[in-house]
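User: Please predict the structure of the protein below. I'd like the answer in structure-token form so I can feed it into my own downstream comparison script.

Assistant: Understood. Taking the following sequence of 95 residues as input:
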Amino acid sequence: MLWLMVVGSAVIGLVLAGAALRTQAHRLPMARLVFTTGVSGALLGVFVTRTALGDPGVATTLVGAVAVSVALLSLLLRPERRRGSAPLAPLGTRP
């Protein structure tokens, strides 16, 4: 049963990363990093959910995997740049 959740969460992580790349490719880093983060987040979500709740069942564990994976993928998003705007100055410099 645990292997089913681990494999299922890895597939969910891949699907979420693919969806993020498909919709927000211009705001994300390399695809390899996005896929790794999606799968790692889903596996971490399974671990955290099972540790916090014991054995809550397959559906609850997979919901936890989705939540953590989406949260980690959202951390990879860069701000959208406006057309015609100047690039940001490096930190520590004054205009």
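That's the full token string. The CA atoms of residues 45 and 67 lie 7 Å apart.
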